[in-house]
Amino acid sequence: MEIYIPNAELERKTILKKYKELLLLLYDKTNARQREQIHKAMALAAKAHKDMRRKSGEPYIYHPLAVAKIVVQEINLGTTSVVCALLHDVVEDTEYTLEDIRDMFGDKVARITDGLTKIENLAISSDESIQAENFRKIFLSMSEDIRVILIKLADRLHNMRTLESMPTE
After folding, report:
1. Are 151 and 67 in contact (CB under 8 A)?
2. Which segment of 23-27, 28-32, 125-129, 133-137 scores lowest on mean pLDDT?
């Protein structure tokens, strides 16, 4: 495993490069209003995850950008899904709430984001029960909007593609 050495300027340039690559994939499929929504989601995700890092040491924002790219390039989903992919960990991992997402992006994005957010803070006795509740939540959300499961699969796919930064066990 290669050791990651943070470099603020290089990371800033890399984030911009990854974001531009995402926009290029979307450009012909979106109008100016849709691109503005994507930009708003990117700005929020970047701000929310500003001081967070992946286990590899890389800036956390690389992950939502990669998930959004999978959503567009490999699953062929549209603007709402890209917005949700960029925001998929914001409620779970930062101070932002589902109500904040609803206020900024509307009910549809909030519902999908909620479906992507793990269940925590439940008085359940075992990790297996919590995992079962997470699956239950995903399946209930999926019956409302299939994009929940497709974005969740993109999230898991990116996590699998970056396993080299995790301990072997």
Report:
1. yes
2. 125-129
